[in-house]
Amino acid sequence: MLRKGLVLLVVALLVGITGFAASQVHLTWSTNDVYTTITVNWWSPVKEAEGVVYGLTSQDNPAKYDSYQEGTPHQIAPKVDVFGNPIDKVWDGYYYQAQLTNLKPGTVYYFRVGGNSGFTREWKFRTIARDENVKFVFGGDSRRPYTPNFVEVKKHPEKPMNWPFARDYITQAAAAEDPDFIIFDGDFVGTGSDQSQWQNWMDAWQEYAVTNDGRMIPIVPLPGNHEFGAYPNKEAAYDWFGGQFALPGPYYSLDFPNLHITALDATFTQITSRNAFPLAKKEAESQLPWLKQDLQSNAQWKIVVFHVNYFGCFQSGTGYPSDPYMQTWTDAFQDNHVDVVIMGHTHNYTRSWPVVVTGFKETQPPSVAAIYKLVKSSEEGITYIVQGAWGAAPDFLKPTGGCTVQDYIAAAVAHPCYSVAEVNGDKLEITTKDTSGTVFDDVTLPYTTDSFPTPDYDQVIH
Questions:
Q1: CA within 13 Å, CB half, 213
Q2: Which of 213, 208, 203 is nearest to 58 (CA)?
Q3: Quick one: which H or E segment has residue 222?
Q4: Residue 115 DSSP class
Q5: Residues 394, 398, 400: CA angle, nearest 5 degrees
Q6: What's the rounded Cα separation, in Å, for the pair 138 and 306?
Q7: Residue 9: what pLDDT?
Q8: Is there a smaller number of Cβ atoms within 10 Å at the N or the C end of the chain?
Q9: pTM greater than the 0.85 cutoff
């Protein structure tokens, strides 16, 4: 950090320059310190001394801010894919990251991003207070439509079901909730190695993940299988995702007041979602020692997040590719009293009743099915939530076919939506709604129940 005198010297050269090169601005936490740090991420077509000017008061001129932190640029250019095959692709421009430190907890700061080409507009961010009840939004799967040439968009350009309108409407609605942060559980784009798709996503996030009073909302991102390249298994590399987000690691945790969030990597390390059991098992097992240690947190609420789901609308043991993660991680979740597991991948919303897994049975080798029971108390079982409805083409729930209402499902909807979670001491409230404010599901943990009804199909909104 540079103090005001040096900042003025650096910024004075920029006064009067019009335009700016920095774009795709977004906020993350690159260390497990949400109280006194924030990391600003952005893209620029040039490599130069770009950075962040910031301070406690709003300014109409970059030269007037109290502090400056220069960004560190890098290019995204993985050399080999996860299978060892060479990759001959370098993304345009440079991706910058600047960690701001020694901030005051629970405080609003104003900032701009820029360099010799000028500065962005002013935004603000808010650090987390040490004693606050945090509120966050979660969801994922905003990638492009299934059909070629964007048929959905061309046919009904104003329908909220269509990409990218659903994605952007949901982001705007999520920002209007004024959350402390947003968890995005993967599948941002359709082809992770396509820079243009990421630029579209990031530009929209910079515009819409902002409150009405100009506060940019930090993102807690997780990779999905589509972040790893092009189908099938082309240019599969973590760098496409990881190069754009400054994070504590490929898997990590963040601590908030009364809340511990664990973010895992469940992506098959490739784009294909079938026939990848050995890779998925290796990926799950490599994180298990760290996971067991991480979940020893004594936080009031423990939430685990990853992309590829189970206890959603697909049964385990049928070849669905999440089975290795379920088999590897479930004991750690249950032994350490995880409250909620949030996942994506399936393009709808489902919430389970409290579930306890008592064992596994082999079905179609190497696939396994969970042996489970539903329990009356949410404190005794785990609530599994699939939230993958951030604008991708919906996976409808049907009485026949793969995506069905299972006996453990308490709530389900196949419609663009997002979920809001609010910690209030010994209570955790989760509300799921669409962009019009229609509430699809509302549950407060802890709770007890004497029965486990499932939604009727004529009650499931498509």
A1: 10
A2: 213
A3: none
A4: E
A5: 135
A6: 12
A7: 37
A8: C
A9: yes
- Cα–Cα–Cα angle for 205, 207, 210, nearest 5°? 85
Instruction: Kindly state the tokens that stand for 79.
Output: 């050399």
What would the mean pLDDT of 424-437 be, rounded to a whole number? 94
Say which amino acid occupies 151. V
Kind plus residue range of the DSSP H or E element containing 125 = strand 123-126
**Roughly what angle, to the nearest 10 degrees, separates helices 277-294 and 323-335?**
10
449 Cβ contact partners less than 8 Å away, ≥ 6 residues apart: 353, 354, 376
Is the model more confident about 275 or about 24? Answer: 24
Task: Give strand pairing partners of 409.
Answer: 352
Output the CA torsion sign for 120, 124, 130, 136.
negative
Could you give the CA distance from residue 126 to residue 227 in angstroms, rounded to a whole number?
29
pLDDT class of 14 with cuts at 50, 70, 90: very low
Write down the pLDDT at residue 157. 46
Q: Considering only CA atoms, give the Rg of the chain.
A: 22
Residue 122 Cα to chain centre, angstroms = 24
Angle, helices 165-176/195-208, rounded to nearest 10 degrees:
30
Residue pair 41/26 in contact by the 8 Å Cβ criterion = yes
> Which residue reads 């929209």 in tokens?
204
CATH architecture of 135-459: 4-Layer Sandwich (3.60)
Cα 198 to Cα 177: distance, rounded to the nearest angstrom: 25
What does DSSP assign to residue 458? G
In the DSSP assignment, the letter for residue 289 is H
| Domain 4-126: top CATH class | mainly beta
Rounded CA gap, 298 and 241, in Å?
31
The answer to whether the CB of 224 falls within 8 A of the CB of 191 is no
Residue 267: Cβ within 10 Å count: 32
- Which residue type occupies 69? Q
- Using CB atoms within 10 Å of the CB of residue 457, give its burial: 0 to 12 exposed, 13 to 18 middle, 19+ buried: middle
The amino acid at residue 244 is: Q
CB 41 within 8 A of CB 61: no
pLDDT tens per residue across span 32-72: 999 999 999 999 999 999 999 999 999 999 999 999 999 99
Q: Tell me how far apart the alpha carbons of residues 413 and 419 are, in angstroms, rounded to a whole number.
A: 12
Q: How big is the CA angle at 336 (ends 282 and 218), to the nearest 5 degrees?
A: 75
As a whole number of angstroms, the distance between CA 187 and CA 191 comes to 9
Asked, as a colleague might, if the bond just before 416 is cis with ω within 30 of 0, I would say no
pLDDT in tens, 389-409: 999 888 889 888 779 999 999
Domain boundaries, the chain: 4-126, 135-459
